Amino acid sequence: MKKYRFLDEYGTFYLDNPESTNILYFPLANESGVMSCVTPYLGGDSKIGQDYFWLEPVSIENLHNNRSTRNFWVNIEGYGPWSATGVSARQQLKVFSKDKEETVLEAGILWHRMTRYNKDVKIKATVTSFVPCSKDTVELMEVVISNLGSGDLKFTATAAVPIYGRSADNIRDHRHVTSLLHRIKTVDNGVIVNPTLKFDERGHRKNEVLYGFFGSADGVNITGFYPTVAEFIGDGGNFEHPEAILTDHVKPVPSGYAVNGYEAMGGIRFEEICLKPGEEKAFYLVLGYGNDEKELIYTAEKYLSKAGFHKALGESKEYWKSRVNIKFETGNKEFDNWMYWVTFQPILRRIYGCSFLPHHDYGKGGRGWRDLWQDCLALLIMNPAGVREMILNNFGGVRIDGTNATIIGTKPGEFIADRNNITRVWMDHGVWPLITTKLYIEQTGDIEILLEEKEYFKDAQIYRSDKKDLDWDPEQGSLLRTKDGEVYKGSILEHILLQNLTAFYDVGEHNHIRLRGADWNDALDMAKERGESVAFTALYAGNLSDLADLIDYLTEKTDIKAVNIAKEIEMLLNFDPEHYDDVNKKKEVLNAYNQQCQSYISGEKKAVDCRELSDALRRMSEWIKTHIRKKEWITNSDGYSWFNGYYDNNGRQVEGDAPSGVRLMLTGQVFTVMSGTATDEQIHKIIEAVDKYLYDEKVGGYRLNTDFKELKTDLGRMFGFAYGHKENGAVFSHMAVMYAYALYKRNFVRAGFKAIESLFRHLSNFEKSKAYPGITEYINDKGEGMYHYLTGSASWLLLTVLTQMYGIKGSYGNLMLGPKLLKEQFDDEKKASVSFTFSNKKFKVTYYNKNNKEYGDYKISEIALDGKNLSGLIQIDKDLIERLDSEKVHHIEVWLI
């Protein structure tokens, strides 16, 4: 069975013959803007943004059909041309034969090494690639050619990488015309491309980014360059069969040569080399971005030596190791290493956004509203410094009608007004800010953040996108103002209240929150008029209850008895509970509120008693939960029961029995469980139904939905997808992980573990998943992991394993310990550990289960901090944590009996 093997405890892994799987790609990046990806054949691309691609942009299908790769040719005396990356016509012909070259991949966090063996001439090529963790915008390669034979090895080496050097938009939009902008020149150690303009017919701009390819080898001279594609491949040639390599007809040009208006080529020819048996020669290559020629050359030269390359590689390995500051130790070392990659994935998401990897061939970088908040979950656990400011900035995207900006800028807290006439609201967006803020408060105890003030976002969308504000003046900027023209600010508590209160009133005919443009499932996008999301109505109910708890704690902690909120919000709080069942009255209240706030706000504030406020929120929460239990609990003809999660655009209940078969969607079960809407008895029945209709071991666990066998145009585009792919019935990791989280939260631990274990077992089985370590966005009907690295499921899985499985969580700044580990998760010595950071202090918690008891049978008997017994406690107090040394690792030992 083909599988990868971990080589250490930091996720480094080894895989034989990875190029036999077409969909593999690996990220190489830094926090200074370089976003590359590399395949086993050294394909992929590199870019620093949508408009600045060094290599030609690739989507997943380009990985097997694009010849524009990072190549390194070795023309061997007596044998002929051989590619160190496997990309030659002769080598490709052998891919399916017994003469196929053997290859090995070794990779760790953001570094990649491919080794290739040619048995005919006893030569080995090892190509190491990475992007340094420094501020330099470069990608680095080391190519080591080794003579494994018994005789001398003579060869001439040529580095050959085509330079795309422009915007991704120009793949189809003026591809040839934009090559006319290229100003190409050769310098002593490379080729530099300086496009004259950034081509955009809406307004051409002067180009400010240069692209350079540089090379060196100790004791080996560069004899010339191939600066254009046409010169390199020749008439009738291609990148796998280039005339410059296969013949002597095309001569390299010297340093100082200039040519304009062609597709650029990073071609560097080295002088002939003779390696004795056992000798090797290393070549160093740099793909660089710069703002001027001198800067670009200077930056590249730092890395064009063995010392410079390996110093940067060592620093990068240590840097990323310091960033992944959570390590799990269970009885399964493979799971521990797999989780190491999962822990790293939120960092990749912050670098790449939701774009710029081969599967993620949409958007132009950046993240969406949901991503801003869910990615913060992992950040709060891994690196909480600066999260407070980030949370405050993010609240600046909330509109006064409870919706939010959907165009997010590149700067922290930057939100951009929609000028493209796109009026769309995702009804789940109001849920996530409170979930993230609540975790922040639990981790830090900083309840006062609720009192901080922040602006509101303002654009032409009003009435929760139902109308346009014709009086809005874009020249005034994108901030809500009072009728006097002053920028209005409200507390963070006010922002959260608005998001959740407006959702309570924005209901459809069944008194659940309107689905509008979509909820978390973006593909439920065709029920804007009459669609309703029962699933997220339940989660809003949980939010209202959680917010009431936070307000109570605010009162207890600060002695604040009342809070100031905008006068207009009073009507949303003073609604008579007797009318909660009345859909029309709810709509009237929301409409009246929106009317008062459509262009500006009065600026007046009213004091609201905290106790009355929390009581009102709890009443709303309990009404929603009771309503859902009463109206949406269904039992089908087979006797299985679960919650209906949606209404379609014809106002019909979506789930239950249908002529085509059973219709069940996982989302409605997840959020009724997570929010406390489902009773314990109902959870037992939900588990039975979900196991019966959605669990599929051969594709990794819980599918998102059953097969509706209908193009359901009154609900969403997902039903146009083939069943078993993406949102239509795939194992969608995000929802499967949130299902696990919900079950753990409600103490259904064995069922929660099953959801996580199923995903791990499947995805870590390379033969089935065809995926490198980590969690993918989904698993398709063939069992293949799809859309790797940039998935929000990584944040939720990290949150679940640390705070639920290991029971490491905050309680208003105190560190709580409450493990929910099953007995098979302890190692041979009956212990399980986790290293993490909490309140800027480093900890390692070790649980001892010497009696080998199962969860539910054991309890904490004793806790020791750095060897000192803390008898009778199940938490480490905040005051004690603040006194601890920030530099050392503090050991907490917990004995279970």
From TrEMBL:
InterPro entries: 6-hairpin_glycosidase_sf, 6hp_glycosidase-like_sf, Gal_mutarotase_sf_dom, GH65_N, GH94_catalytic, GH94_Enzymes, Glyco_hydrolase_94_b-supersand
GO molecular function: carbohydrate binding; glycosyltransferase activity
Pfam family, one: GH94_b-supersand
GO annotation, biological process: carbohydrate metabolic process
Keyword rRNA-binding applies: no
UniProt KW Transferase keyword: yes
Protein name, per record: Cellobiose phosphorylase
Domain Glycosyl hydrolase 94 supersandwich, chain residue ranges per copy: 119-304
Keywords of the record: Glycosyltransferase, Transferase
Domain Glycosyl hydrolase 94 catalytic: 319-469, 614-804
